[in-house]
User: What shape does this take?
Amino acid sequence: MVALGFVSETFGIKGAMENALQMVNIDTAEAVHNHILDRMKAYQTTKDPDDLKLVICGAGFTGIELAGAFVDERARYAQIAGVDPKEIQIICVEAAPKILPMFKEEMANYAIDLLDKLDVQLKLGCMIKEIQPGKVLYSTSKDSEELESITTSTIVWTTGVSGSPVMEDSGFKARRGRVIVADDLRDPDHDSVYIIGDVAAFMDKSSDRPFPTTAQIAIAMGEHVAKNLDHQLQGQATENFSFKSAGTVASVGNTRGLGVVGSTNLKGYPASFMKKIIMNKSLMDIGGLKEVFAKGRFDLYH
Assistant: This one.
């Protein structure tokens, strides 16, 4: 069973890997946190306004959730730097003209309005062309060769992910690290290999597109493969995998969010509450009560 996970996707943009902070696991998240604290402390000496700018490249789920987390920490950052919280700029640069395409327009617009109220500068339709040390270069038109720029001491890269490059290196027929798997989650060319999670592309027949690679589908895939392995050990035929999303919820800070659960739209605090419940359920599914008590979210009311 192959479940190698994801890597940050730079789409070939020059300097992205070298000059931007990645957000792919706990270690890189802690590195972003520590970097920002260092820049806020440095501002006391440098008085460089770039130290107070936090630029997020990409306004997908990760980018929006990260912006919300920065908003929650804005007062703390300001206290460390010795400035008014309004001086901490949070800027999110996105190539698409809209955000969160998995939601209907009403919910996407709610997210835009919420970010605006939180004083997050959302720059839509800005195609990043290059990341230089301390600078994001972007274009606002496909036909324009003129580039605009943002200078900053903190650039965080959240434009997307791809499956592990080990897939192509190992000879699998993968695109962006993902293999289109058979209906029972096996590799089409190798009956003895199951592929799941971020390195698997399981097709949604209603849209003829792969389902998004989320924790929700990855956990379901793992459970299904366990059943199929049991069938094979007993000399039985494998079962085909099917998936129906239970919904999608994004947090925008600790007490705000938006999402859809079933057919119900959730906004604000109720979405935040549900996000924490979903996280706890995922921990229970993966590691049981021990994992929930070690890493669970119990701050449901604040």
